[in-house]
Amino acid sequence: MYLAFDMGGSAVKYAALDRSGNILYKNKFPSPKDSLDDLIHQMFAIVEELDGKEGLKCRGISMCCPGVVDSYQGIVYWGGNLPYLHQANLKKIFMERFNLPVSVENDGKAGALAELWRGAIHDVRDAVVLVLGSAIGGGIIINNQLHRGAHYSAGEVSYMVGDPTDTPDVYLRQGFDASAPKMIRSIARLNGLAEDTDGQIVFDYIKPENKESWQVFTTYCRKIARMIVSLQYIIDPEKFVICGGISAQVLVRDQIYNEIKQMYEANKEYSMLPVIVQSSLNNDANLYGTLYHFIEEHLEDDYRAILDQK
User: Fold this and answer.
1) Contact at 8 Å (CB) between 210 and 247?
2) Is the pTM of this model over 0.85?
């Protein structure tokens, strides 16, 4: 058994998996807002609870999180929506506590690895994976391999320059501006719902005749569409995969595609229309991806067997 953690801006998802990627158990808890110690304490407790459960011995711990991640040293920089992760060496912290092999990866890159292993791009050479969440995670696959970049920041699409602010020379970071929870909260408020209303309920209010809500939603989709068009011309991938909880809504994929078509109709010099598909892994994608990275780093024979299956 291997334990996988997916640290997000709103929740930490975790699962016990076997080395083939079968999920044996999964759950989640709210992400601590201010304290690395609180996060580590809760994750330690989960490892201790699950190790040996139903006779299954934990053989390793894999995890992913926001931020720029030195994936082989296990150090996180900045931490995105969890800024207290900055400069935390998660690999060292967990190895010293449990004396087990540990792997750490960026969440967007974990999503890309999951799609490469078990998802929509297992037969594609070049692709971009976008994880729509509190911010937008990203992973770039080139020649069937995850591209990390010279400073481990390849795929950090959240830092793409967005719209200008009221402060001269200060621009929004596009992936943080295009936040799915922020969009859901805005639509909830417009319709007199509590801000923590389940997103599935909020989507019942997203329809063209509900003009204010529709405008918030289409603005969100337009920001992602702009990202995709830019990346299409920079990387020229065969496919884009959209992941994350909100990606399960067919309306999201369809409206992003509609926004792209409108851009192409208005700008005739655009000719390479992106191919966009939904993830079939949905909320579990990052859990699979963290395990894939663990296998890549620590279980060489298993990793080669995975590659032979492609």
Assistant:
1) no
2) yes
